[in-house]
């Protein structure tokens, strides 16, 4: 099963490799990982999408918590959370398909951020499923290049992670 | 007071109560060594290899319960420490290892003797630190010792660039540490403890399965009290030996791959296992699918990752063993069904007694060749009650575990998790440095002894009277045994062929050597070796193709033991 896990870590040298090394060393999967500083400069936040059965996910959570530089681990699968991902997509757009691309962009409330006579570059944001959906429609038209950030997640409601 | 980084480090070590360090100099620690030259509060022991230095610090830590400290220079010095660090990591031994590093300005430039030791040791340390500013040094050392010794203990590495050792700063040792991402749970949850006692008192066929956590928590007394007050049998892992006296009738000895028939049968047939500071290693469980099929499992461990890692657990208790056992003892005291419970165990204890009688741990000593097991038994008989035994890795290690009969904690030092050949001699050296007056014995194979034999020089130079026992079968015996049993005796590269004159070797280093080739010489050699002053090699030419039995073949169930082959 896929899980989205937020990991709050000390914003210190080498932390990313500690987390990445934990996953590779123990054979855990990483489907995606994104990391950046938070409003508290001393803390970075990673969002990791991983997979495994219940026992493996329990180990992933515990092993992450065991790292000295990890301050908090939040597994969003049990909680209601909002996930968003961004994709930059370069598609072939020549005569016949230019209008079709625009229509798709419009339906998904995406944006065209670069235009050439032969291509459009699109910025799309949304839940990962939405990104998958737009890609499915664009793919037959000719995907030249794709960048996805991987999802970031935040809990619903008034509370922040500190409670 | 203002002082340089090298001096600050030494002052910090002093504040941590460090009296002995094991280290090897080089370019990037030369400033540190210059400070050590005049720093008389710390004894520095120079091993002949950095790996041995770390094993010595590890032996010191296992024997004393304190944090062991080792020092090495950057580059090759640092990489030489890696096996020692990984050995300590696998067995949860508290160490602080300090490595020199090239000056901060050169890091990343492939400078002379630069190696990314932080990257290399990340997966085999509990944590590691690169010190980038002398102002952070004292706080980092404080954290390093705290992390090494608290919670589940383990090795911590501090990488100290040369310029940081030279830089001047005000020295102030922090009074306390607070690491927001590291708050080990020490106190067992009272509700869980109560549930555990009530589960236990409902059992008819309980076993207490004891591991290294009981030793590291210094909870042998509490464990022994609990087992005796409940009349419940106890089996120990290799790392747990000494936590419960093996001469107690409730002792089942070692369990697992080379455990006793009765310990493995008791585990397989039990209805409740209380795991105390043990991690269900694959050498212990055998095939997981058939492990203890009828048992409920209570698991007490300070490290949540140990729980439910390999086996299902019915009742987890996260906490320090000593704390949890103390709480359990209190709850047990308040119960009025203890007598009834003990009476109900009679059929179970009878069944176990039957297994003990059917297949005791045994061997036959013929008149002609020395059986290795016989040497171990004689060592027990003739050694001091508080003797410390370090072993190397291989058959001799297992015979020591099976036949020595450990009765006190911290008297067996052995590399269990990593199984590092070459560990025994330097670990004994570290223990002897901690306890100059106690008898310290290193039990080695002829193979592993040669992986760190250079330490004979350290022993002689520092007057560390370690008694080295070599069970010489002229084989890499443990591997040979596997080849005999599972590879039709194709002894590929396990015969050590070249006979070594260990007596002359001892003499070359200024130590003494004794040799026994026949059973009736064994006792005499041990007596002479123990009597001689200073370090000694006692070589025993033992039956070459003796096997360690029982044996649970890899992948088999715990009750499918090879008893005699
Ligand atoms: C050749 C060879 C053969 C071997 N054969 C066997 C065998 O037949 N039988 C056997 O048992 N072993 C055998 N071993 C050793 C085996 O590989 C493991 O090292 C050993 O079984 C692990 O012991 P343990 O479970 O006590 O764990 P340890 O490694 O000692 O782990 C201790 C556990 O306790 C926890 N802990 C630590 N401190 C505390 C504390 N203060 N409070 C609470 N919990 C704490 C830790 O988190 C950890 O989970 C063999 C090794 C070799 C090299
Ligand atoms: C550093 C290292 N290399 C290889 C091994 C694999 N190994 C385990 S036991 C053993 C044989 C040890 O031989 P010896 O020291 O003579 O002891 P014996 O088994 O004969 O008692 C070997 C090679 C190991 N455990 N450690
Ligand atoms: Mg041998």
Describe this structure in words.
The complex is a heterodimer of chains A (163) and B (565). By secondary structure, chain A is an alpha+beta fold. Helices cover 32% and strands 40% of the residues of chain A. Chain A has 4 helices and 9 strands. In chain A, helix 3 runs antiparallel to helix 4 (128-142). Chain A is elongated, with a radius of gyration of 18 Å. In chain B, helix 9 (190-201) packs across helix 14 (321-333) and helix 12 runs antiparallel to helix 16. Chain B has a 6-stranded parallel β-sheet with strand order 3-2-4-5-7-6, sandwiched between helices. In chain B, strands 11-10-9-12-13-14 form a 6-stranded parallel β-sheet, sandwiched between helices. Chain A binds chain B through residues 9-10, 13-14, 17-18, 21, 25, 55, 58-59, 62-63, 65-71, and chain B through 118-119, 122-123, 126-127, 130, 132, 147, 179-182, 303-305, 308-309. The complex binds flavin-adenine dinucleotide, thiamine diphosphate and magnesium ion (MG). Thiamine diphosphate (TPP) is lined by residues 392-396, 419-422, 445-448, 471, 473, 475-479 of chain B.
Secondary structure elements and their pairing?
The complex is a heterodimer of chains A (163) and B (565).
Chain A: E1 2-10, H1 15-25, E2 32-37, E3 43-51, H2 54-66, E4 70-75, E5 81-92, H3 95-107, E6 111-116, E7 119-126, H4 128-142, E8 143-148, E9 152-155
Antiparallel strand pairs in A: 1-3, 1-4, 2-3, 5-7, 5-8, 5-9, 6-7
Helix pairs in contact in A: 3-4
Chain B: E1 2-4, H1 5-15, E2 20-23, H2 30-38, E3 43-45, H3 50-64, E4 68-72, H4 76-80, H5 82-90, E5 95-101, H6 117-121, E6 127-130, H7 134-149, E7 155-161, H8 162-166, E8 168-170, H9 190-201, E9 206-210, H10 212-216, H11 220-230, E10 234-236, E11 251-254, H12 261-269, E12 272-276, H13 282-285, E13 296-301, E14 315-318, H14 321-333, H15 338-344, H16 346-358, H17 372-382, E15 388-391, H18 395-403, E16 412-413, H19 424-434, E17 440-445, H20 446-449, H21 455-461, E18 467-472, H22 477-486, H23 502-508, E19 512-516, H24 519-531, E20 536-541
Parallel strand pairs in B: 2-3, 2-4, 4-5, 5-7, 6-7, 9-10, 9-12, 10-11, 12-13, 13-14, 15-16, 15-17, 17-18, 18-20, 19-20
Antiparallel strand pairs in B: 1-8
Helix pairs in contact in B: 1-2, 1-7, 3-5, 3-19, 9-14, 11-14, 12-16, 17-18, 17-24
Bound molecules: flavin-adenine dinucleotide, thiamine diphosphate (TPP) and magnesium ion.
Flavin-adenine dinucleotide binds at residues 91-92, 152, 211-213, 216-217, 237-240, 254-259, 277-279, 281, 283-284, 301-303, 306, 320-321, 393, 397-398, 416-417, 419, 478 of chain B.
């Amino acid at each position: 099963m896929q899980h989205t896990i937020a990991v709050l870590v000390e914003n210190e040298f080498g932390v990313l490799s500690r987390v990445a090394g934990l996953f590779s060393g123990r054979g855990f999967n990483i489907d995606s990982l994104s990391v950046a500083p938070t409003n508290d400069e001393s803390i970075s936040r990673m969002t990791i999408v991983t997979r495994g059965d219940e026992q493996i996910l329990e180990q992933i959570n515990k092993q992450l918590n065991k790292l000295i530089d990890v301050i908090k681990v939040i597994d969003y699968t049990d909680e209601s959370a909002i996930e968003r991902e961004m994709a930059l997509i370069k598609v072939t757009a020549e005569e016949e398909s230019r209008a079709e691309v625009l229509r798709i962009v419009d339906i998904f409330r995406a944006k065209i951020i670069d235009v050439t006579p032969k291509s459009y570059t699109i910025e799309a944001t949304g839940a990962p499923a939405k990104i998958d959906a737009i890609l499915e429609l664009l793919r037959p038209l000719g995907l030249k290049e794709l960048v996805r950030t991987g999802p970031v997640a935040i809990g619903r409601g008034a509370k922040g992670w500190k409670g | 007071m203002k002082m340089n980084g090298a001096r600050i480090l030494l002052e910090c070590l002093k504040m941590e109560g460090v009296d002995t360090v094991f280290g090897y100099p080089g370019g990037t620690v030369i400033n540190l060594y210059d400070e050590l030259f005049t720093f008389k509060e710390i004894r520095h022991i120079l091993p002949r290899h950095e790996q041995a230095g770390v094993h010595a610090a590890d032996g010191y830590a296992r024997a004393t319960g304190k944090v062991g400290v080792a020092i090495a220079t950057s580059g090759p010095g640092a990489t030489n420490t890696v096996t020692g660090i990984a050995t300590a990591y696998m067995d949860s031994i508290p160490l602080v290892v300090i490595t020199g590093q090239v000056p901060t300005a050169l890091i990343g430039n492939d400078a002379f003797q630069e190696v990314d030791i932080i990257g290399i040791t990340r997966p085999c340390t509990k944590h590691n630190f690169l010190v980038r500013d002398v102002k952070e040094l004292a706080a980092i050392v404080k954290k390093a010792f705290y992390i090494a010794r608290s919670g589940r203990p383990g090795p911590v590495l501090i990488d100290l660039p040369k310029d940081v050792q030279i830089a001047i700063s005000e020295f102030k040792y922090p009074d306390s540490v607070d690491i927001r991402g590291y708050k080990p749970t020490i106190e067992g949850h009272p509700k869980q403890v109560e549930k555990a006692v009530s589960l236990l008192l409902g059992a008819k066929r309980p076993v207490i399965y004891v591991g290294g956590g009981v030793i590291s928590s210094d909870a042998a007394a509490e464990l022994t009290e609990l087992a005796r007050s409940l009349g419940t049998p106890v089996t120990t892992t290799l790392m747990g030996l000494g936590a419960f006296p093996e001469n107690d009738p409730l002792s089942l000895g070692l369990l697992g791959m080379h455990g006793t028939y009765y310990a493995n049968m008791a585990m397989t047939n039990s209805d409740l296992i209380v795991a105390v500071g043990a991690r269900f290693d694959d050498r212990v469980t055998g095939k997981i699918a058939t492990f203890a099929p009828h048992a409920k499992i209570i698991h007490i461990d300070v490290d949540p990752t140990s729980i439910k890692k390999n086996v299902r657990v019915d009742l987890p208790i996260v906490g320090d063993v000593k704390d949890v056992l103390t709480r359990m003892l209190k709850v047990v005291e308040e119960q009025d069904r203890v007598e009834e419970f003990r009476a109900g165990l009679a059929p179970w204890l009878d069944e176990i007694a039957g297994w003990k009688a059917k297949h005791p741990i045994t061997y036959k000593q013929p008149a002609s060749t020395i059986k290795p097991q016989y040497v171990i038994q004689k060592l027990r008989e003739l050694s001091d009650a508080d003797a410390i035994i370090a072993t190397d890795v291989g058959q001799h290690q297992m015979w020591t575990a099976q036949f020595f009969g450990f009765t006190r904690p911290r008297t067996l030092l052995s590399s269990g998790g990593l199984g590092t050949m070459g560990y025994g001699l330097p670990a004994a050296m570290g223990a002897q440095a901690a306890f100059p007056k106690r008898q310290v014995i290193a039990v080695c194979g002829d193979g592993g002894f040669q992986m760190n034999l250079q330490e004979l020089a350290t022993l002689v130079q520092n007057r560390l009277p370690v008694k080295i026992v070599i069970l010489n079968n002229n084989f890499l015996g443990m591997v040979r045994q596997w080849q005999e049993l599972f590879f039709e005796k194709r002894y590929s590269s396990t015969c050590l062929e070249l006979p070594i004159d260990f007596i002359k070797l001892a003499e070359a280093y200024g130590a003494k050597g004794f040799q026994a080739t026949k059973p009736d010489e064994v006792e005499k050699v041990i007596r002479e070796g123990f009597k001689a002053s200073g370090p000694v090699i006692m070589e025993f030419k033992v039956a070459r193709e003796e096997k360690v039995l029982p044996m649970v073949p890899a992948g088999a169930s715990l009750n499918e033991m090879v008893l005699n082959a």
